[in-house]
Amino acid sequence: METQNKIALVTGGSRGLGKNAALKIAAKGIGVIVTYQSKKEEAEDTVNEIKQFGVQAAALQLNVADTKTFDAFFVEVKTILKSVFDAEKFDFLINNAGIGIHASFAETTEEQFDTLVNIQFKGAFFLTQKALSLLNDGGGIINISTGLARFALPGYAAYASMKGAMETLTRYQAKELGSRGIKANIVAPGAIETDFGGGVVRDNEQVNAGIASNTALGRVGLPDDIGGVVAFLCTEDARWINAQRIEASGGMFL
């Protein structure tokens, strides 16, 4: 199959890291479906930017926290695949959608914990399960973790725990889906300047300087530092990379 016939589905692809990944994937000649939760206009702008790379693109609404909507979502995916891409299936699933909740271990509420489980772990677990029938053999799953699963910064106990669960899940996905030629890898960004977590890394000068001083390359990460790594995993050059945690943090806390 030619690269231009390949298609990636990127959750949370309307802004930030997900948008950057979607654009870098498109630049490799791969069609893209992005999902958004509420910002439809941003998603449509992203679709228009993706199309400038000469590939097809579409946006679909999805709340990854609500597993009950997944069956209906994949009915829509099937329709879009046919109408926009003239395809039956897609090739790469990028589980990017997520939120950050900053709370100390001692003060994390059950509600905060459940919110994070539903979005970061349960949602990605069952969305990927439901996607299996539409995922081409030889395709790939790319999950997103965080440097916080390797090093501990106070305030992220629940969030980082979910990402640790995703790292373990990735290895199981690789093992169990390998017979179909489906690869599963997880990319772990360090601290990135986006609006994630209220934009604290981007907008708080002290936080930004503190992270830069603890990073071997001497600065905070940008979405542009991560999107290309995700896109690379969607290429033939990455065909033998499987079950790996790839940290893209510029060398944080070495």
What does this structure look like?
This protein is of the alpha/beta class and 254 residues long. It has one domain (3-248): NAD(P)-binding Rossmann-like Domain (Rossmann fold), CATH 3.40.50.720. The chain contains eight helices and seven strands. It has a seven-stranded parallel β-sheet with strand order 3-2-1-4-5-6-7, with helices on both faces. Helix 2 (40-51) links the parallel strand 2 and strand 3 (57-61). Helix 1 (16-27) crosses helix 8 and helix 4 (110-131) packs parallel to helix 5 (157-177). The protein is globular, with a radius of gyration of 17 Å. The mean pLDDT is 95.
Keywords, separated by commas or semicolons:
254 residues; alpha/beta; 7 strands; Rossmann fold; seven-stranded parallel beta sheet; 8 helices
What is the topology?
Layout: E1 7-10, H1 16-27, E2 31-36, H2 40-51, E3 57-61, H3 70-85, E4 90-95, H4 110-131, E5 135-144, H5 157-177, E6 183-189, H6 200-203, H7 205-213, H8 224-232, E7 245-248
Parallel strand pairs: 1-2, 1-4, 2-3, 4-5, 5-6, 6-7
Helix pairs in contact: 1-2, 1-8, 4-5
> How many strand units?
7
Residues in helices, as a percent range: 40-55%
Structural class: alpha/beta
Sheet with the most strands: spatial strand order: 3-2-1-4-5-6-7
- Which regions contain 5 or more consecutive residues with pLDDT less than 50? none
Task: Output the CATH homologous superfamily.
Answer: NAD(P)-binding Rossmann-like Domain
What order do the helices and strands follow? EHEHEHEHEHEHHHE
Q: How many independent structural domains?
A: 1
CATH architecture: 3-Layer(aba) Sandwich
Which fold name fills CATH's third level, the topology?
A: Rossmann fold
Shape: globular
The CATH class assignment is Alpha Beta
- Largest sheet: number of strands, sense, barrel closure: 7 strands, parallel
Terminal CA distance: 41 Å
The Rg value, from CA coordinates, equals: 17 Å
Number of helices: 8
Strand content: 15-25%
**What's the overall average pLDDT, rounded?**
95
